[in-house]
Q: What sequence folds into this?
């Protein structure tokens, strides 16, 4: 039997280049070797206030974009979190095995509470518990994510181990799978911050996969660099240039050393143009496929239903075991 992989993406907007490099590109590489389950986590996205019509659209668009970016819906179980109610049920049970002290330490919670100070809801606080439920429901061994999710994965492991220690081996204890390069693509204008698809402050911070080529080139040309004129990979002292080199290296599947050699003696303008062109080349076929898929509502519905049903069956097996373990009556 193949090992199970699980990962999720929030429908809080549309995919950006950091999501692609840090997560989705690697997911597509795993689809032959593993039993892959990828989920549009729409319930997680509700932790931030959403406008209903746009939210609905975004979720469908995200689903189509994942397929366009390389996830074959016949090889991967690709579905919406809200299609499988077991996610919410298991999350409740796991809430009772997670300490408030653990949730208080989560940096994403602290960061999002600052960004959404007018809406620090309980869902934002217990967000990592729902995430643990997502993963543990499918007995996943590996969870491919970007660097920002490492702490959530550690919490998921702790909760799984705690539960297993009390009730026996109910859950597979998963491991994070974080790429060595590109796990944290930084914002183009503010290199202290990770690039984020729900960024609203400055659109020049983020390159979206569906941005037109002129916008991509413009965003790359405006990216913050430094004044010493040297193209060198040095994240501590040259964060802007290192970020551009990382984007280029990941998209071209080369090392940052090779990248440095390739750009030796060239100016920042040439690097920015090359990065912009590499992004445009990557996204062009994705955009083309996306346009086809998004106009075929019947096909998307069919995939959602088929995959959602497959996911629900697998999830029900684990949920039944959990209920039996804790002593919930079933009739
Ligand atoms: P939001 O802005 O709504 O929090 P996000 O851009 O952080 O969204 P998610 O849906 O939370 O995206 O994450 C999807 C995947 O992309 C996750 O595996 C996450 O670790 C990864 N990811 C997110 N941002 C980056 C980034 N800047 N660099 C690399 N990977 C990233
Ligand atoms: N929390 C993740 C999204 C997410 C996820 C998951 C990732 C929800 N459930 C399960 C991996 C596995 C995020 O904010 N990127």
A:
């Amino acid at each position: 039997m193949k090992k199970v992989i699980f990962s999720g993406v929030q429908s809080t907007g549309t995919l950006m280049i950091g999501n692609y490099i840090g997560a989705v590109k690697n997911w597509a590489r795993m689809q032959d070797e593993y039993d892959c389950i990828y989920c549009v986590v729409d319930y997680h996205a509700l932790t931030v206030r959403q406008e209903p019509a746009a939210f609905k659209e975004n979720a469908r668009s995200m689903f189509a974009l994942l397929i366009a970016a390389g996830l074959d819906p016949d090889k991967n179980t690709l579905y919406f979190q809200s299609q499988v109610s077991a996610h919410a049920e298991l999350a409740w049970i796991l809430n009772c095995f997670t300490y408030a002290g653990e949730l208080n330490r989560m940096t994403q919670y602290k960061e999002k509470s600052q960004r959404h100070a007018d809406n620090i809801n309980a869902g934002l606080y217990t967000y990592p518990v729902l995430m643990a439920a997502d993963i543990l429901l499918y007995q996943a061994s590996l969870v491919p994510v970007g660097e920002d999710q490492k702490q959530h994965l550690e919490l998921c492991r702790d909760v799984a181990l705690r539960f297993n220690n009390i009730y026996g081996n109910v859950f597979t204890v998963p491991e994070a799978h974080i790429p060595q390069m590109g796990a944290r693509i930084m914002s183009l204008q503010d290199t202290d911050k990770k690039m984020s698809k729900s960024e609203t402050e400055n659109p020049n911070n983020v390159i979206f996969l569906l941005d037109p080529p002129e916008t991509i080139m413009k965003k790359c040309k405006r990216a913050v660099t430094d004044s010493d004129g040297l193209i060198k990979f040095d994240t501590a002292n040259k964060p802007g240039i290192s970020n551009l080199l990382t984007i280029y290296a990941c998209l071209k599947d080369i090392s940052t050393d090779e990248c440095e050699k390739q750009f030796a003696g060239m100016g920042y303008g040439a690097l920015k143009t090359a990065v912009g062109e590499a992004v445009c080349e990557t996204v062009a076929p994705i955009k083309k496929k996306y346009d086809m898929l998004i106009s075929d509502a019947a096909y998307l519905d069919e995939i959602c239903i088929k995959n959602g049903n497959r996911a629900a069956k697998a999830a029900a097996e684990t949920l039944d075991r959990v209920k039996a373990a804790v002593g919930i009556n079933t009739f």
Summary: The first strand starts at residue 4 and ends at 10.
